[in-house]
Structures are given as C-alpha cells and as structure tokens.
Amino acid sequence: MRGFDDHESRTMSMSGEAASIPDDLGRVLQSIDAYLAKHAQEFCEEYRVQRKDGSYMWILDRGMALWADDGTLLRMAGSESDITERKRTEEALRVSEERFALAVAGSIDILWDGHPLPDKHGMRHRHRSGGRRESGNCLG
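Predicted structure:
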C-alpha cells in the first residue's frame, strides 16, 4: 500500500513516527497511549503517512489489544485502510460548499429550494427565470 518491501514496511509500522506527518503524530500517539492505558475503548485514527516514493496518503488505522487476566498487554493487532480518495472527495466537497456559500452571500438574487407537489399527471414542475418550466417525474 505504501510501496515498501515487507522488511521495510515492518520497520515503518513499528516506528510510525518516521512515516507520519508531524501535525498528525502527536494526536495519534496520544490516542494510542489512551487506548493502552484503557482510557479509550478503541483505537481508531485517520492520519497521513509518507509512501516510499515520497508522496503522502491518508490511512484509517484501527487496532485492538489482547489483554492478560492480570490486565497486562499481550499483543495488539490492527489494520490500515487507504482512505486517500475519500479524503480528497471530502476536501473537494468542503471547497465546493465554501464557494457556493460565498456566491450566495454575494448574490442579490432570491434563491430557494422547493419540492412542489406533483400535478394530476404525476409530474413536478419548477419555474425558472425567463418563464421556462422545468419538469421531472415525481418518482425521482
């Protein structure tokens, strides 16, 4: 997933500090510490890591510990999922919403969103500027 060979990826996962972005590292380490101290019920974090080629990706990291009867940690297992595309989509949506909000704030037009009732033929009609009518099936 990150482009490292098996022996390289094992080293990287054991010292995540080398692979994580400093902005994310403190939060992730605190989350791990809280989980291992049993102050949190789960370990689940999203953060950025560097690939072998130098680019960065977002991962969803989940972990679960196995505890001995006396409460000591026996082992911890987890998984990483590449969520880079989801993060890009979320950012694009955030930017789009911000641009739309700026356009609305700077507009002198009246804007509304309505869902008119269907007519006797089951069609919905919306009137737009210029007197044109926009129709659609009520099933949609």
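Summary: The radius of gyration is 25 Å.
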